[in-house]
Amino acid sequence: MLVTARLGHYSGAIKPLAARWYQEDPDLAQWMGFERPPDEETIGRYLDAIRGNQSHTLLPIQTKSGEIVGYTHLAWEYQGLVNVGLVVPDQKGYAYSGMVLSLDHAFLRMGAHKIMAEVREHHATVFEGLMRIEGVLREHRFIGGKWINAVALGLLREEYDTNPLLSETRR
After folding, report:
1. CA-to-CA distance for 9 and 92, rounded, in angstroms?
2. DSSP conformation class of 145
3. Where are the alpha helices (DSSP H) in 5-62?
4. Does 82 score more than 60 pLDDT?
């Protein structure tokens, strides 16, 4: 699949967009740990707290023309492990592109040994071929009044280096 986006530089412009995304999709807000969709002030404090933590990187995902379509949150955990979180509300392939760009950033700029991500069970197929399924986290999140499963995805540096789907982005 073609990478149709790029990572941008963080700016406050993402705050009202993120607030709108969470307002429009309460399940997304719950997945991210909010009891209810946050307003712009709350999401601003949340994003600022991430940005203020030296072990975290927050980057907007942008179309080639510069429109912000989501963001990636990369958290350096320990000993080369980086957790990736994506917020990409539309279904136009930007989640796939955002993950490819996140993997590139984590391995090539942050020096990660392994990358992990937790996704909704029905989203795991979006990242097929990019990351391996490491397990199902049963009844992992309470969303929309019911317990749902999550899927743990992982990718090692050596797998990244030899993955033909990812090598195209490094040309």
Report:
1. 22
2. T
3. 14-24, 26-31, 40-51
4. yes
Question: In sequence order, what are the residues at sequence separation of 6 or more whose Cβ sits closer than 8 angstroms to the Cβ of residue 99?
Answer: 84, 86, 117, 126, 127, 130, 131
- The residues pairing with 62 across neighbouring beta strands, listed in sequence order, are 6, 68
What are the pLDDT digits (tens) for 90-132?
768 899 999 999 999 999 999 999 999 999 998 888 898 899 9
Q: How far apart are CA 101 and CA 170, in angstroms?
A: 10
> For residue 60, what are its two tokens?
């907007």
Q: Which amino acid is at 98?
A: G
CA angle 56, 52, 156 (to 5 degrees): 5
Q: How far apart are CA 169 and CA 3, in angstroms?
A: 8
Q: What is the pTM of this model?
A: 0.89
